[in-house]
Every structure is written in structure tokens, then in C-alpha cells.
Amino acid sequence: VVTAARAGRTQEEVRRHNLSTILREVHERGARSRAQLTEATGLNRSTIGVLASELAAAGLVREVAPVAKGGAGRPSFVVRPAKDVYVVAVDVGVDVLSAARVGLDGAVRAQSRMLQRRSNPSVTTVVKRLGRLVDEVVADAPAGATCVGVGASVCGTVRISDGMVRLSPNLGWVDVPLGRALSDRLGLQVPYALGNDADLGALAEMTRGTARGCQDVVYLSGEVGLGGGIVTSGRPLGGSGGYAGEVGHVIVNAKGRRCRCGARGCWETEVGEDALLAHVESDRERGRGAAEAVIRAAAEGDRQARKVVDRVGWWLGVGIGNLVNIFNPEVVVLGGLLHDLYPIAQHRVQEGVAAVTLQAPGEVVRLSVSELASGAPLMGAAELAFEPLIADPLGALEHQAS
Amino acid sequence: VVTAARAGRTQEEVRRHNLSTILREVHERGARSRAQLTEATGLNRSTIGVLASELAAAGLVREVAPVAKGGAGRPSFVVRPAKDVYVVAVDVGVDVLSAARVGLDGAVRAQSRMLQRRSNPSVTTVVKRLGRLVDEVVADAPAGATCVGVGASVCGTVRISDGMVRLSPNLGWVDVPLGRALSDRLGLQVPYALGNDADLGALAEMTRGTARGCQDVVYLSGEVGLGGGIVTSGRPLGGSGGYAGEVGHVIVNAKGRRCRCGARGCWETEVGEDALLAHVESDRERGRGAAEAVIRAAAEGDRQARKVVDRVGWWLGVGIGNLVNIFNPEVVVLGGLLHDLYPIAQHRVQEGVAAVTLQAPGEVVRLSVSELASGAPLMGAAELAFEPLIADPLGALEHQAS
User: Fold this and answer.
1) Which ipTM was obtained for this model?
2) What is the pTM assigned to this prediction?
3) Which of A148, A249, A342, B209, CA to CA, is 20 to 30 A from B7?
């Protein structure tokens, strides 16, 4: 019943698949000896040699003779990701815009950010700002370095096919063509890819964070509301239109507060920024900074703040329990504001989880804060930007050259 | 980040993959001409010819010269699934045990069933009963017909690796080795596979029911409680241990009823059998029959029954909305008791869905009753039983012969 599996495979497809496998290995794990690649891929050593040479000829890896260890046997060439291949990543958050130049080895070569007020900025304004940030991070790229893609993370639902932001309540955007505006401004002749911030946070944590090696992951992004980036059996949960993962809008408390989506009792009404600020009366004390202040106050023993944080912690646990029952993940990663909240509310979160989680999925799940913290969506955008190259290394280069 | 994609592919793997593609095509769609197979698989006509001959030599398909249409050009051989290859499927429901002999073309050749009381039957009792049912459906198989697998559906969480039923509240089972007991009783030297009834219901609806051709499917099975069989991007949602899909235990009404799992406000407390019987006081009027009677009474205008059905319908809609926001499916299929409930409560269900569903995923989703109705899990068990053969036709046969 899997359409993708229906297609027969040709020789050429097998070769391209194997090139991709090797490039992904050095991209994710760094320099690898041919012996290590042989072991990781199941391909034989001479095939690895041929494929690595092809990647080297394309300028994607370098092959380095190892320092002799004095032992017997042939030395194993080491395959390294090329130093001068990079992507540009940007992140459109509610409060912060950021950009980075990221190498094929996953290292951030340059990074730049600016704060912005919550004032429903136009796409023109946002793209102008992003453009300046990108100019900065690209300015000191070495001569001859090659940009192979642009990836963008945005706090909203995204139509993958054309980079249209369908809905971002926090930016006040409905059907905003961010992908097109960004490519118009940057003018780089490379593939552009947009993704939802929580989806990209999950991708980053799986590639280089606390969910490395996991196949079933729930990443929760606490921003103004609550986003979910979910991976099942190693694949991102996209849904039929790319809108899956709206876990903030699961009704958990039917008699609870009205949500800005219109429904009553959505999970994010109990654990979003506003839930932390429910006892704050002045409209001037809102926003991310105010929410972080409540968490700090609770940590320092303020009783009212403690009560609020405990309540939010409990509901966070209940909603996590729901997702554990649905997805049976190996790990639930807490990102954004939840990264700061969890250490303070850990006990109540775990009580909430325990009250809801069934035994079998509860036995295997681990709760963890995001290792990449607020940088997760940006790093995920970089991974997204590398994906066309890594999925089909030679095809991507041919396409760019043409 | 996909482990399965890391492995390099060899020639032999490509050939096996292509054989699988062709066999799956004729299994799911029936007799196909070589021209149709060429179109469906993207392989060229001579490759199709070679592969079809291999499958024919293995006894899995027959190649039939078509009746000449009188036109020009070569006639296209028709490839049919072999008539004498079958699987045995069984379904362990709460109230009904059933067995079927199902051909490679998907047709039920023989079927048998028996009612059982809800009295926490032992696995020995259940397997003894299943054994008799299987004996009946196998008895009139043609001489020389080959059984290639046994598939079993069970109303509980299943450890796929060894067919252990981890938990079935409705049978009163905890860690019951149904797979082993079944293979001991039946004694057939073929692969055995167990699955959860809702997962198999989803599989059946996607292969031969209302979700044909869909890649993102939520199948809801209303039995005593509520099970979910979920498919995302064409793949069943299994989770890290095979326990995913426990949608009945999503907290939707935190101040609601206590669930038998111990939590308060699980979705199934609002839409399960007991919710339909909430107004019935006598313990003697419980069970599936009583729940069906409430639905019938509502349809016939009984006011109290109508009220109950409306309430359950609303909560069914709310929970469906939750799942639509999480999964962005193409279709939500209502099976089991919900198959009967939906036509009566349709209006309220849709109101609940509309109150919760976000716009983007709401635009694309379709609600549908199960086409295979109560037979869906059994038909899914048959598909599960065919899977090893179809995934690797020659490998499966070699394995059986050895």
C-alpha cells in the first residue's frame, strides 16, 4: 500500500542512493574512514572507494590519507565533508530573527540575530531584516566557497511545496509567500526550503541533539503557544498537506479557557505563555520576557509564581501523556520556553505524565530538554537546506550547474 | 537520519524489490496486463516479462494470453494472482471469534465465526475455539493449495516481534503468548503474524476499503473502548515498541469520568460502549447488544436514547478534531460500533469536529464509515499474513521450503 515503494529501481537509482548514504554519513558523523563507511553502509570496500572518489570529484568530500599507525594492513583513507560547502539558514521566530552560515560538517561558521517587537510585521519588513542578517553571515565566507541551499524556519504552518506560510497567528500572517519573498531578496540560485519551527527543532535534535539515533520522537516547542514536531519510524509526520503536528490544539480540558483558535480547552491554553501569565493583570507585563520572569521567580521561591508553574507543569505532563499514548515515542524533547520551564516544574510534569500514560508506552519513554535549546529550529533549517544535496548529491549539483 | 535508508543496495536486492512490486500490484488490484504493470511500476516491458515469469515459475501468478481484440500490435499478457495460494486469518474480538481462508487475490474463500461471552477466556480456550474455526475454513481447500501465512487480529496491544499480547483489558489478558499458542495449535509451518485490531482495520480499509489510495489515515475502532489504527505517509504508526495509537486514552475532558485505565477523562469514557449505556442502570443490560439497542432506539425517536447518542456524537467529533489537528489525515474511518453510530449522530459529530479542527487540516479531511464494517480486522489480518510473501516473494518461498 506504499506508493513510493511501487516504483521499480534502476541501476542508476541504486548508485545515487549509495552516494547519498555515504554523504549523509560524513555529514552527520564527521570524518569517517573507508572501513567505518563499509561497516555503516554494508557496501564493500571497493564500492565505497569508487563512490567516495565520485563525491570528492564533485567537491563534496575530501579524501585524506591517514597518519600511519605502524600496524600491518592497508591504511584506510579518511573521508571528510568538504570545508567550503555551506548552506544559509534563517529562523523567523516571534521575538527573534536569526541567520547562520552552516558548513557541510554541521558547524556554524557565522551567525547573526536581531530582536523584533511583536507587532505583526509585514513579510516585506521581515525579509528585509533577514536579508541584512544573511548578508552579514555570508560576507566572510571564503572565496570559492559554495552555497548549496537556503533553509528557513518559521513559527507557523507551512505549505512545503511552495514555501507559503498558511497561518502564523503569532506573526499575524495568513497565506504569506515567505519562500518566494526570501528567494527574491537573497537572489541565490539554489534550492529554498521552508519548514515549521517545531518540525525543524525535531530534525535538529535527531541529527545533532538529544534525540540522536532515535526513530520515534516528539519535540515540543513552547513559544507563544505550543508547537509539535513529530517523527515516527524515522520520518517526519507531515500529514496529507504538511499541517500535521498541531498538538497545541488538542482539547484536554473541555471546560477550560477559550483558545485564540476559537475552541475551548486546547492544550496550549494550559501550557502556553499566557498560562504562565494568567495571574498577571497588566497587559504591559506580557511576552516572552515576562513568562521567563515567572519561571525565574518560581525557582527563587515566589509562592504565587510557584503555584502557576506547578499548574502549568501538571498540564504539560497530562498533554505529554496523551502524546505518549498516541505515539509511543522513545523521547519527548522539550524546546523553547519549555526548555526553561522543565527543570523548575519537573516533579509536577512527571506526575501529570504518570497520571495519563499507559504502562507499555510509559516504560520506554524518556523526557529530555532540548540540547540545542533556542537554536534548534535554526539548526534544523540548515539540515533542511542540505537535504536536496544529501538526498541526491550529483543530481543536486547537475541541477545547479544547468 | 533514517537508519533503514543507510544501507547500500545490491543488485539482488533490487531484483527482489521489483518482484515484490509486481506481486503487490496484482494482489491489490487483481489481474493486470503487462502494459498496465509497466505503467504502474516504471519498469520496462521486457523486465516486467522476466519478473512475471519468475513469479509464475514460483507458482505465485499465472500468465494468460489475452483474447485477441482484433487490433494491431502485440497482445499484452495478463498476469493473475495464483488461485491456490492462500492465508489463514483469525480475529479475536471481545464478543466474536472468527476465521477465514483468503486467496492471494483478496477474495474470502471460506469464513467461520462463533460468539463468545465476555468472561475473560483463557488463551487455551480461545485458541481451542480458533483451532476449530480454522479447521473448518481449511477443510475444503482444494488439493494442492498452499497456505503461505497465518495472520491474527486481537483487541489489545501486541508485541509484534513475538506475538505476545501485552494488554487486552477486554479479554482480561496481560502478557499472553497468543502467537505461540496459535502456532502450536495450528501446526502450519508458515510465518505467523499478530496485530492490533484497529491497526489491521486501517490496513484493510487502505487495501480494499474506503481508504484505498490514501496515505494518511486514521481508523477508529469502537469496541468496548476505542482503538486507533493510524497510517502516516503510507506507513502504519507503530511507535518505538509497537504500542502507538492508543487514542482512546487521550484526556479530553479532565473533569470527566474515571477511565478503567485509571486516568480521568479519557476519550473512551465519553464515546465507548459504556458512554452509550451511561443512563442504563441495570448491569444486565450491558455489552455490545445493549449499546446497539441504544443506537437503534435513537434512530427510532426515543428521546433519552437520542440525548445519549447526541452527547456521544459530540465527543466523538471533538476527539476526531484532536486527531485531525495532530495527523492532518485524508480520511477518518469509523469502524466497529462507530460504524453504526455515525449515521445516527452524524450532525453532532460534525459539529464537534468543526468546533475543534483548525482550518488547514479541516479543509482536506473526509469522514467515512468503514466499508468492510465488522470484517475489517479479519481482512487486515489476512493482509498481514500475506505481507512476508509479498515483501519478498522468492525469499519467503525459499524460507518455507528449507
Assistant:
1) 0.88
2) 0.89
3) A148
Specify whether the backbone of B59 is left (phi greater than 0), alpha (psi in -120 to 50) or beta: left
The helices-and-strands tally (H runs, E runs) of chain B is 15, 16
Tell me the C-alpha distance between B45 and B38, whole Å: 6
| Residue pLDDT, tens place only, A122-181 | 999 999 999 999 999 999 999 999 999 999 999 998 888 889 998 898 899 999 999 999
Residue A14: exposure state from Cβ atoms within 10 A (0-12, 13-18, ≥19): middle
Contact indicator for A18, A51 with CB cutoff of 8 Å: yes
Handedness of CA A267, A272, A274, A276 (dihedral sign): positive
Q: How near does any CA of chain A get to the CA of B14, in Å?
A: 6
On whether the CB atoms of residues A197 and A377 are closer than 8 A, the answer is yes
Q: How far apart are CA A197 and CA A157, in angstroms?
A: 9
Closest CA to B377 of B240, B250, B140, B200: B200
Distances (CA, A) of B22 to A356, B56, B92, B106, B397: 45, 12, 32, 15, 16
Distance (Å) of CA A401 to CA A138, A398, B173: 21, 5, 62
Yes or no, beta carbons of A361 and B329 under 8 Å apart: no
Tell whether B53 lies on the interface with A, counting CB pairs under 8 A.
Answer: no
**A215 CB near a chain B CB, below 8 Å?**
yes
Are residues A186 and A131 in contact, defined by beta-carbon separation less than 8 angstroms? Answer: yes
